[in-house]
Structure formats: structure tokens, C-alpha cells
Design goal:
Order of helices and strands of chain B: HHHHHHHHHHHHH
Largest sheet of chain B: none
Shape of chain A: elongated
Oligomer: heterodimer
Strand content of chain A: 25-35%
Strand order of the largest sheet of chain A: 4-3-5-6-7
Radius of gyration of chain A: 21 Å
Number of helices of chain A: 4
Chain lengths: ~160, ~300
């Protein structure tokens, strides 16, 4: 009995090893558990601010937190997970109208009478060998009831 | 400890199954069932929000899973998972758990197709795999329970050691530099702000920002606790290791606002000698109805 159990264990371990080795460390539920293994690297997340439907878009400068217009819009309001929006912003290279439409879809009825700006948020050390972290906000796109304005750098 | 003796202890083949063992393992199976159903229906409710696959994981590398985002498919899959889980729990068909796991895999890769890899459900699924393997390959129910529990203990310990090794490979021995924590705390502050609309650093986080050594100490503790995850494999050290791991998970919650609830619950069940404690209580009234009821199931 014990031999059979050990044989099964080793077989599963072999399958585990092959699957994670051939799929960048992840073949759920098999994993090498790489979370937080990349220490000290710059990170990229996202944040949505509610700016109202009549907000005038004047520039696309990168800002600090106390310079942001409007108020934070909690993604809990639309039941969307912040990890998914952050990855959509940071990993996406396709800013086609179809993709933008799918992003507008997340906001549902909230877009009927409101305007939002979606920021890509970057965190990094202020200087090399510094412990101080600075967080910068770059507007990626504005969503208004009848229009979407994309950061010109993304359009290019 | 000799090689054979290690496995004998892991699978408890060196002792007769007790009433306490039976209750403990059935409770673990029940908690696993609850967690799988919770994930299945929660993810099913989320998937209609999605429209495209950003990062294919697992089977999604070979199968276009966007059909799961269309009306009804995610709910149908959740229903299929639930049905096979219940058949497995009621012990009606030995292949039901493995089939539930395959559909659960499809569910996971569809839900987490947006670029973020979540490890929150991995241990739950490894518990399911453990019960599935035991059900497929072993006829005797008492042996099945011992094997399931042994696999769960083994995979839980392996996962933590693997996590520690990944950190050491990715960050070297300076992985636990307290300044790294400052970056992660900043990242998590944006995550919570984005999700909830508000965020404030708690007292411990403020202390960590003020005292670099404290931040380094907490990261070092976490790394060492993960690295010693293999101590779950030995009965004598299991409760100590489980306590440390639960402490680490509470630490992750307080410092980085990440809640690994299912891990904590599973560690609470497998990490402590509940079976011995249950036996002690049951032995006080050896002829009670509860004992008779358990014996009927135990020796079925």
C-alpha cells in the first residue's frame, strides 16, 4: 500500500514539474508560487478618478497624488477587480476602438452621466539606493458619456 | 528518520485509524467542498464582465476560453463543478472529484485570464486533487482517508518551500531588504484605494516606514517560515510550523492587505492534532450515541 502511495506521489510530482517547467511556472493548481519573488522592481497599477461629464482635457502630464483632479472612483461600485484593470492597462498594447468599448462596458450605467479618467500608476524608488518610494499617475484615457479620449502617446 | 519511515508517518500507516482521524479528515473534505463551491459561483458571477483573454493560463494556452464569458457558460460550469463535487463528497463515484477538478481548472483559467495570476485558490485545489487521487487509486475507505491527508500535508509543505525558493532565486539573499517592503506597501495602497475608494496605512505599516530594521525583520521572518514549510510533513513539528505559517499569513494581511483566508482555514485543520483531542473527548463516554454513529461510518 505504501509503495503504491509513494509511486502516485512521485508520478504527480513529475507531472507537476513538467507542467510548470513548460508553462512559465504556472499550470493551476500547480505552481512554483513566484508571488513577490521579484523584489525592488518598479511596479505598475491603475486608478480611476471621477471628474464629471464636462471636464476639459487639457494635457497628459504625469502627476503626483495631490495634483489629481476629481475624486477616486472605487471599482467596487462596478464589481470589477482592480488587478484586472491594472493588468489591462499595463499589459495591453491594443488600444483599438473595440478594446476601448470593452473597457467602457465595465462602467455600465455609471457612464451615462459621468466622466472618468483612468490612470496608469507607477511606483519606484525616488533615487538609486534610496528607501523613499514615489508614486506617479499618468492619464491613459478619459471616458465621457458620448466619447472616449485616449492619451495620444498610446494612439501612436 | 528513515526513507520508508517518513512515508509511513506521512500517510499514518504506522497506526490504526481512530474516530478522531475520521472526523478530522471528513471535516477537511467538507471545508474543501465549501471552498470549491464558493470559488465556482463567485467566479461565475464575475466572468460575464470579461470579454477578452489578456494572458492565457493552463489549458487556455490551447483552448479559446472566451466562450466562458458569454451568457450562461460560466454558471453552467459552476453547476457542473458543484454536481461532481457533491457526488464526490457523498462518495457515489470515485472519478467525480477528478472531473470536478478538470472543470474547476477551466473555471480558473477563464476567470484569471486578465493578466493577474492569483494563488489564493491553489491550496484548495491541491486538497481536491489529493482527495481525487486517493478515491481513484484506493478502494478501502480508511486507506483513502489516510492517503488523502498525507497528500494534502505533502503538497502544502511543498508549496511553501517552493514559494521561498522562488524568492531566493528571484531576489537572492537580499530579498528580505526592508526597502522592498516599502515598494510593495505602496503598490498595495494603490490597489486598495482603487478597489475600495479609500486607504490608510495602519500602525504597523507606519512603524515599518519609520524603522527600516522592522521591515527587514518582518520580511526575514516570512522567508524563513516559508522555507521551513517542509516541517509540516512531520507530526512533531507540524503544529509549530502551522502556527508560524498562520502567523505569516496574518502578517501578510496586516502589512500588505492580502487575505489568504482559505490557506489559514486549511492550515488550522491540518496543522493541529485535532484527531487526538477529539479522541480524548469521545473516550470520556465510550458508549455514547455519537461514538456508535461514528463507528458505523468508520467501519462501513
Amino acid at each position: 500500500m505504501i509503495r503504491k502511495a509513494v509511486k502516485i506521489l512521485y508520478t504527480v510530482l513529475a507531472i507537476y514539474a513538467v507542467l510548470v517547467a513548460t508553462h512559465l511556472g504556472e499550470f493551476w493548481p500547480f505552481s512554483i508560487y513566484p508571488m513577490f519573488s521579484q523584489a525592488g522592481n518598479e511596479w505598475s497599477r491603475s486608478l480611476v478618478h471621477e471628474v464629471g461629464p464636462d471636464y476639459k482635457v487639457t494635457d497628459w502630464n504625469t502627476l503626483l497624488s495631490d495634483e489629481l483632479p476629481g475624486d477616486v472612483f472605487a471599482l467596487d461600485n462596478i464589481g470589477f477587480n482592480q488587478n484586472d484593470l491594472a493588468n489591462l492597462i499595463s499589459k495591453n498594447e491594443d488600444w483599438s476602438p473595440r478594446r476601448m468599448q470593452s473597457i467602457r462596458h465595465f462602467f455600465g450605467d455609471y457612464l451615462d452621466e459621468n466622466g472618468f479618467v483612468v490612470y496608469r500608476v507607477r511606483g519606484k524608488y525616488a533615487e538609486e539606493d534610496s528607501h523613499e518610494v514615489i508614486i506617479e499617475f499618468t492619464p491613459y484615457f478619459y471616458l465621457f458619456p458620448d466619447t472616449t479620449i485616449l492619451n495620444p502617446k498610446l494612439e501612436n | 528518520m528513515k526513507f520508508k519511515s517518513f512515508y509511513s508517518h506521512l500517510f499514518q500507516f504506522n497506526r490504526e485509524e481512530t474516530r478522531g482521524d475520521f472526523i478530522l479528515i471528513k471535516f477537511l473534505e467538507f471545508v474543501m467542498l465549501f471552498q470549491v463551491l464558493m470559488y465556482a459561483w463567485r467566479w461565475a458571477g464575475y466572468m460575464p464582465l470579461l470579454s477578452e483573454v489578456i494572458l492565457p493560463l493552463g489549458i487556455a494556452n490551447y483552448l479559446d476560453v472566451t466562450f466562458m464569458f458569454q451568457s450562461g457558460f460560466a454558471y453552467a460550469n459552476a453547476a457542473i463543478i458543484s454536481i461532481f463535487m457533491l457526488i464526490g463528497f457523498l462518495d457515489k463515484w470515485r472519478f467525480s472529484y477528478i472531473i470536478a477538478l478538470l472543470f474547476f481548472h477551466l473555471h480558473y483559467v477563464s476567470r484569471y485570464s486578465q493578466g493577474e495570476i492569483s494563488h489564493g485558490s491553489n491550496l484548495t485545489a491541491m486538497v481536491l486533487l489529493s482527495f481525487a487521487l486517493a478515491a481513484i487509486f484506493f478502494q478501502d475507505k480508511s486507506v483513502r482517508r489516510k492517503i488523502s491527508f498525507g497528500f494534502v500535508i505533502f503538497f502544502a509543505g511543498l508549496g511553501y518551500v517552493s514559494a521561498a525558493m522562488s524568492k531566493l532565486i528571484g531576489g537572492g539573499i537580499f530579498w528580505s531588504d526592508g526597502a522592498h517592503m516599502y515598494l510593495w506597501m505602496g503598490e498595495r495602497s494603490i490597489d486598495r484605494l482603487s478597489q475600495d475608494g479609500f486607504f490608510e496605512f495602519n500602525l504597523l505599516q507606519q512603524l515599518m516606514f519609520e524603522h527600516y530594521w522592522l521591515s527587514t525583520l518582518i520580511l526575514t521572518f516570512g522567508l524563513l517560515v516559508e522555507l521551513s514549510g517542509f516541517l509540516l510533513w512531520f507530526k512533531k513539528t507540524r503544529w509549530i510550523q502551522a502556527t508560524l505559517l498562520i502567523g505569516m499569513h496574518v502578517g501578510i494581511l496586516v502589512t500588505m492587505n492580502i487575505y489568504f483566508g482559505p490557506y489559514i482555514y486549511i492550515l488550522l485543520i491540518i496543522g493541529f492534532p485535532w484527531n487526538d483531542w477529539i479522541n480524548r473527548v469521545l473516550e470520556k463516554k465510550p458508549h455514547s450515541e455519537l461514538n456508535t454513529l461514528i463507528d458505523r461510518r468508520l467501519y462501513a
